[in-house]
Amino acid sequence: MGRPKLSLQEWCNADQKLKLDFIEQESQRSGGLIQWNGNYYFPRVMASQRTTISAQLSNHKTIHLNSECFEKLKSRYRTIKKKQKDSGLIKKQYQFKPKTVDKIKKIQQNNSWSREEVVIENLINNYIGWAFIDEKRTQLETNKKHLKLLTTQIDEKQNEINDLNSKNNTLDKKIEQLIKKLAQISLLEGYYKDILLQQEISVTEPDIKEEILEEKIHQIKEQLKPKTFSLEDFD
Asked: pLDDT digit string (tens) for 70-91?
């Protein structure tokens, strides 16, 4: 069963922009199939048959044709469209082995393609597609490695942060202990001063040598350092 016959209106509705340009150019072409009389398009050569078919274009202009002119117009449109399509193609000639030719024909038949060139185009497009996929796959693998490396670095930095937080907590506790001791010393100092005043005992502040003071400062700093453990501590 053949394809249903296309009406003039259906033909004009398909590819409207291309059809408008084609009809306009055909009406202006010397020896063109149609012409414009200011109101509508009609055949340049009137046939003996009087039966006409009409259609309205997308620009609201009207075209009146007979069946013979319509068939010629469709044929010319197909020819021009094919020429426009082929104008961007480059003609090449290749020599293949018989086995390769047989494979090309088999692929063409299996896919119901009109020309052998379509087979080659699809093979090339598939090759380019797979090459693109391989490239993206390689990029993904590289990105995975980078991500793994970054994750390791982040974990290391997080461990360092946790270690510093732990040391800070230890240091805070030691500072609190020293503040408590300083408060106790201050209270005791006031207590002993009161006793000395009550007993009317005069005491001069001793002259502390610089090296003794430095040694004491060093001891306090050592107390503030967080303690580190080694395997020997657990023997």
From this structure: 999 999 999 998 888 878 777 7
String of DSSP letters for 73-136? HHHHHHHHHHHHHHTT---------HHHHHHHHHHHHHHT-S-HHHHHHHHHHHHHHHHHHHHH
For the chain, the domain total comes to: 1
* CA dist., res. 54 & res. 42, Å (int): 9
CB of 64 closer than 8 Å to CB of 42? yes
Q: Where do the DSSP E strands lie in the chain?
A: 34-36, 40-43, 53-56, 62-65
pTM of the model: 0.44
How far, in Å, CA of 39 to CA of 32, rounded?
Answer: 18
- 57 neighbors 19 (Cβ within 8 angstroms): yes
Asked whether residue 54 is assigned to any structural domain, the reply reads yes
The residue segments making up the domain with residue 18 are 1-88
Asked if residue 212 is part of any domain, the answer here is no
